[in-house]
Amino acid sequence: MYKQFRCVDGCSDCCIYRQYFPSIEYGKTGVLLLPHEKSKIEESARRNNLEIKIMPRVGIGRNSLGNGPEEILIYQIMGRDATGDNCPFLDTYSDLRAPNGGYRCIIYEERPLACRAYPVTENTNNQDPVLDSRCQFCTANLDKPKKGSLIRELAALKTIKRQVRIDRNTPVWRYATHVGEERDSAKFFPEGWLLQDI
What we know:
Blueprint: H1 13-16, E1 31-33, H2 35-47, E2 54-60, E3 71-77, E4 90-91, E5 104-105, H3 113-117, E6 120-122, E7 130-131, H4 136-140, H5 151-163, E8 172-176, E9 192-196
Antiparallel strand pairs: 1-3, 2-3, 2-8, 4-5, 6-7, 8-9
């Protein structure tokens, strides 16, 4: 029997903890943000009197100097903590809570597509979705959700994939954030663009 995905009671982990990706040297990533979402998120921050930091994440092509991309495909909302954790839109200060009892997202109805896709991280035709192994629901349930129970999440992921297409012959750049735990900082690349081998 497959179970419908729902946040575990009291969990806000996906909004709190960020990961190193693609490896520790790049620093922690923020929440994936498509270019058309960037101005909406900036406006949401202004409306809520929040300071946010948005960095580039992935770009393609080469700029005229050859030291960065011609076009930015993906941005990222960085966490508000020096370690890169805690989404700036997560209300950890008030007593208000989300329906599952976790911390409340103050922009839940206008949250980015990446948040809407969670916990789905990948999906290809005719295969069950790949789910975030760090998600408490996914690790606690042996019967993983199937495609039919993740319709909204899969639709969000499909929209992201449709908008982030990369030609194999185009140079791909990844932005190193230089953000993370202090104990790891000696391993970080300097902040900035790095050309990827594809």
